[in-house]
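Supplementary Note 3. Input sequence used for the single-chain structure prediction.
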Amino acid sequence: PLSLAVPATFGPAELRALQDAAAVAGLELARCPATPDCLLACLNAKHPLPADAAPKRVVIVDMGASATTVTAAELRPGGAAPKVLATRCEAVGCQHIDYKLWEHFCAWVKEQPRTKDVEVEAGTKRSFRLLRGIEKLRKLLSTIPLARAMVESLGEDIDVQIEADRELLLRCGADEFGRVRSLLLEAKAACGDYATVSVEIVGGGTRMSVVHDLIGEVFSRTVVMGQKLDDASAAFGAAI
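The predicted structure, written as discrete structure tokens, is reproduced below.
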């Protein structure tokens, strides 16, 4: 039997569809726990609090391609089952920020003398090439303040270099980052007046420096963002 981690946004209809797909594939599903619960179970199993420790509040920020989930929980001593205080999810992820950058660069392309006649339409090869360059920019901006990427064959025998800094990333994704900030504020409120709250991050979106800044702004500039979770953590949590 399999245990599959599913997004926190899955409702009865999505779960039934997954179960039907598994049955067609000849798989036996034992259960389908939500990904936030799996991450929390993994954290509690791999890094349990000592038996004589005080309970600890933790916030898990999971930002992927299409959604962001923030979970506030209380870890208890001796590996006891953690208590979930709040789980909030928004359909906002890296691909939504990439799309806002795509809109910016589509307009930018029309302003350049060499590419003013180039039409970049959604769903075309040109659009795919531009999105691929934008994704590269976003990932580079996680480590450097100014990034450049070459977009090949954007027009007929035309290669274009695009560049972006973190200010442009923040400006284009202002609405999306605002929604992430709201999730963080709700998680902070759920943690109450605890002086010490640790934050664990997972997912490609949490590598963005803008997201790090948001976490520091909401919780504390001195908050330590843990690296105890990775891409395999949800699978581990689902298995146990």
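DSSP finds eight helices and nine strands in the chain. Residues 35-93+174-230 form a domain with the Nucleotidyltransferase; domain 5 fold (CATH 3.30.420.40).
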